[in-house]
Structures are given as structure tokens and as C-alpha cells.
Amino acid sequence: EVQLVESGGGLVQPGGSLRLSCAASGFTFSVYAITWVRQAPGKGLEWVSAISSGGNTNYADSVKGRFTISRDNAKNTVYLQMNSLKPEDTAVYYCNRIPSISWGQGTQVTVSS
Q1: What distances in angstroms separate CA 70 from CA 20, 41, 58, 61, one per listed residue?
Q2: How confident is the model at residue 39, as a pLDDT?
Q3: Cβ contact 83:67 at 8 Å
């Protein structure tokens, strides 16, 4: 089955850090770009970051300098290291490949004191 499974979310205080994981299965992971998007309560999807098959990275202005995306092709996994978290980073975070497949369940990130 072709799928992506997100994990690593949780409750963290402002200024804290989390590392999200996106584990892929059922397809040749290394040839696909992977993207992270998020959805805050009551809002639409917001693109966060992407990494190409070759390791080139891009970030939304809202997370640039705080988030780092990386990939481990041996583990079929993409990571999103999130530092200096802010309350406005609170959202459900989803990953997908490009071109996309069905969205997974996502992982909840809550930044609150």
C-alpha cells in the first residue's frame, strides 16, 4: 500500500522544539519530492516546507530560520525539525509526496504555555 504516516507531534511550550517524521511505504521514496503542509484550527491548508529528491529545500517565510526539513532515503523518512516554536505554529501537520497521494491522518502540534 502506498502511504505516508506522520508522527512526532505533541504539546510544547513557546520557544520549544519538536521533530516530526514522515514515514513512506509502498513506493520508491528516493525519487520523490516530499512536502509538509499544516492546517490550523478553522483555517485552510498552509504550505510549510518541501525537499526535492536531490535534497534541495524550500520554506515558507513564516517558518524560515526556525524549521529544517531533511530526508533519510535509507529509512524512507522525511523529518521536520521545528525550533523556536510559536503559538501560531499550532496546527495539524501533514506530509505528502509530489505528485500527491491520499492525505494521511497528520500529527497534531500544539504550542501553548
Answers
A1: 10, 26, 11, 18
A2: 98
A3: yes
